[in-house]
């Protein structure tokens, strides 16, 4: 096909599209034009209905007050025209009102209204005795009929005027001209002026119809343009949605975790690789959920760099540690860059999270081996060289106290018992130091599993029942079962044993005789609380903030001095390792009361997923119980 033929083909296609477009516009314009005309017709019908009723009442008043004096001179009485005004006016009014109500906007309605309007005008002229001033109502009525914007209605009204003037001019000249002499050809004079007025009225109707048609076409073109724009917007939106879905699919198959944020830095999308990396669903990372997995020691630095990236729009590059659902530490590299989908939109960030644990381990293999060896040597030294002699000395003291080495005096028994208690305290201190070292250096690997806090804390409390009974302290255990909770969390059992043991031992130490210790377990939709409450002790407010510091023993002269200052510090380390929270609240009322609360954050969905991953099912229901020593 040569160039001329191609040009002709393109021209034919464009012409066809333009013709199709013009056809749609014309059809739509015709619809708009018709709707506007119907609206005008209906409004005019209502207007003329009111006008006819008004003229009817005006005719009755004229027949009662004015007509008798016109027709009978100075005599005023109930004239025949009164009855004529009432019944003839009602007959003239009834037919157009019927059509206005039943067939509004129809052509027949307009013509019936025009005829009735001219009959009512002729009757008013009759009632005034053919006064020339009343004839002006003919022109006013013709002007009113132009509200229909239908020149055919004017023709109908003009014909009625001609017939009326011809008939009454011959047979009732006084009724129309106010003279008793017949006026055979006078109707031509009146008809001329009516026709002269019609020329302008008809021209106005035709002109306004043309203006309405032009406005309808403009409106149709505008609507057509809006439809085209809406179709284009819909097409662009579908393309953008398809591109976004394609991006999400690609992110799911990428070897690294891809994420997307809004302008505030909140994650709005994360790929499926996140589940393989952390064991959590991608939905749990949306918003700021991913920040909960950052290692506690590096969290402030990572969040600071992320905030700087969001605020300044700079690239984000950082290596840090995270903890997956099983508590395993992993090294990752986070990267993100700012981008804009278009010029007018807010900036977003696209980034990735890459697992670099193997690389980190391979880089630091030798150094880690040396450190591990040193840690093991240190722990072995503490465990063997310090613990074993103390344990041996305690066994010898037990033999002496039990009389296995011969009789012992009461004074010597007291001294031996104090030596044994001191050795026990020293052994406990060594165990605490080992625990602190393990938590601080990360040498102690926690074995996370599903743990029932009610059963666990109750078991630890039972172990202290004999000591509490010897001291005369009441032990109480309470569980709030008002919520549908099973009070299970993912945790390390051994760590929780140490946590509750330290808290209960601390409470027993500072509870006086006849005092009371209560362990209360309660929860909500997102939190499980374990409270250890003891009476008879008070921690000043300035000391509450320092209770969990290492080696803090309170201040001299205060009633609350927590031993060597290691027990509560170990509790705080265990709580941090479980991403929980521990607080202390103390009041001096009624001899003093101190409450230590450990709060585990949990969600029902997380608990369910943890159950599935661990292969454990828990259906135990706990009732509120009271345990007394």
Describe the structure in your own words.
This protein has 629 residues and is α+β, with helices and mostly antiparallel strands. It folds into four domains: 155 residues, no CATH class; 109 residues, PAS domain (Beta-Lactamase, 2-Layer Sandwich); 42 residues; 169 residues, Heat Shock Protein 90, CATH 3.30.565. The chain is 59% helix and 14% strand. It has a five-stranded antiparallel β-sheet with strand order 2-1-5-4-3, with helices on both faces. Strands 7-9-10-12-11 form a five-stranded mixed β-sheet. A two-stranded antiparallel ribbon has the order 6-8. α5 runs parallel beside α8 and α13 runs parallel beside α18. The C terminus is likely disordered.
Provide key terms for this protein.
4 domains; 19 helices; Beta-Lactamase; single chain; 5-stranded antiparallel beta sheet; 59% helix; 629 residues; alpha+beta; 5-stranded mixed beta sheet
Number of domains: 4
Oligomeric category: single chain
Query: What is the second-level CATH architecture of the largest domain?
Result: 2-Layer Sandwich
Low-confidence stretches at least 5 residues in length (pLDDT < 50)? 6-19, 72-78, 555-562, 604-629
Structural class: alpha+beta
Question: What is the CATH superfamily label of the largest domain?
Answer: Histidine kinase-like ATPase, C-terminal domain
C-alpha Rg (nearest Å): 51 Å
Instruction: Output the CATH topology of the largest domain.
Output: Heat Shock Protein 90
H/I helix tally: 19
Distance between the termini: 105 Å
């Amino acid at each position: 096909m040569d160039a001329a033929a191609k040009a002709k083909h393109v021209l034919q296609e464009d012409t066809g599209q333009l013709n199709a477009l013009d056809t749609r516009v014309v059809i739509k314009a015709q619809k708009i034009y018709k709707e506007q005309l119907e609206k005008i017709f209906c409004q005019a019908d209502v207007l003329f209905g009111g006008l006819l009723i008004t003229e009817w009442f005006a005719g009755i008043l004229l027949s009662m007050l004015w007509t008798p004096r016109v027709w009978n001179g100075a005599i005023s009485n109930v004239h025949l025209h009164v009855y004529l005004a009432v019944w003839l006016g009602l007959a003239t009014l009834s037919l157009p009102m019927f059509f206005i109500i039943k067939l509004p906007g129809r052509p027949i309605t307009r013509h019936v209204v025009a005829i009735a309007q001219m009959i009512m005008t002729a009757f008013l002229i009759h009632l005034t005795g053919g006064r020339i001033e009343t004839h002006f109502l003919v022109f006013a009525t013709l002007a009113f009929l132009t509200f229909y914007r239908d020149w055919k209605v004017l023709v109908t009204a003009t014909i009625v005027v001609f017939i009326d003037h011809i008939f009454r001019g011959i047979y009732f000249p006084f009724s129309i001209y106010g003279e008793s002499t017949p006026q055979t050809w006078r109707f031509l004079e009146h008809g001329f002026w009516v026709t002269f007025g019609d020329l302008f009225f008809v021209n106005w109707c035709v002109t306004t119809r043309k203006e309405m048609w032009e406005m309808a076409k403009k409106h149709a073109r505008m609507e057509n343009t809006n439809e085209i724009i809406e179709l284009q917007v819909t097409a662009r939106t579908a393309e953008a949605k398809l591109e976004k879905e394609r991006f999400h699919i690609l992110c799911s198959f990428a070897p690294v975790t891809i994420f997307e944020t809004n302008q505030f830095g909140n994650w709005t999308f994360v790929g499926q690789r996140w589940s393989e990396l952390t064991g959590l669903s991608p939905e749990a990372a949306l918003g700021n959920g991913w920040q909960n997995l950052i290692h506690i020691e590096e969290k402030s630095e990572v969040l600071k760099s992320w905030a700087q990236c969001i605020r300044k729009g700079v690239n984000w590059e950082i290596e840090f540690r995270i903890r997956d659902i099983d508590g395993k530490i992993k090294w990752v590299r986070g990267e993100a860059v700012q981008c804009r989908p278009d010029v007018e939109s807010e900036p977003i960030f696209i980034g990735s999270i890459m697992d670099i644990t193997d690389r980190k381990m391979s880089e630091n293999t030798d150094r880690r081996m040396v450190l591990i060896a040193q840690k093991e040597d240190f722990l072995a030294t503490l465990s063997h060289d310090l613990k074993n002699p103390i344990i041996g000395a305690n066994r010898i003291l037990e033999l002496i106290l039990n009389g296995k080495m011969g009789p012992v005096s009461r004074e010597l028994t007291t001294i031996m018992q104090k030596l044994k208690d001191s050795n026990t305290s020293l052994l406990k201190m060594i165990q605490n130091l080992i625990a602190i070292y393990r938590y601080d250096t990360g040498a102690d690997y926690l074995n996370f599993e599903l743990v029932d806090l009610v059963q666990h804390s109750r078991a630890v409390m039972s172990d202290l029942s004999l000591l509490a009974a010897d001291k005369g302290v009441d032990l109480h255990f309470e569980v709030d079962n008002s919520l549908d909770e099973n009070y299970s969390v993912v945790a390390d059992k051994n760590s929780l044993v140490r946590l509750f043991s330290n808290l209960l031992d601390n409470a027993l130490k500072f509870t006086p005789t006849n005092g009371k210790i209560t362990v209360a377990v309660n929860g909500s939709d997102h939190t499980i609380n374990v409270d250890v409450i003891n009476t008879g002790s008070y921690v000043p407010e300035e000391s509450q903030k320092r209770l969990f510091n290492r080696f803090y023993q309170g201040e001299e002269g205060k009633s609350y001095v927590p031993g060597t200052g290691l027990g509560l510090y170990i509790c705080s380390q265990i709580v941090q390792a479980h991403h929980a929270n521990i607080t202390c609240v103390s009041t001096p009322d009624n001899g003093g009361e101190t409450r230590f609360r450990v709060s585990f954050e949990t969600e029902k969905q997380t608990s369910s997923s943890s159950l599935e991953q661990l292969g454990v099912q828990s259906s135990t229901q706990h009732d509120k119980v009271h345990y007394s020593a």
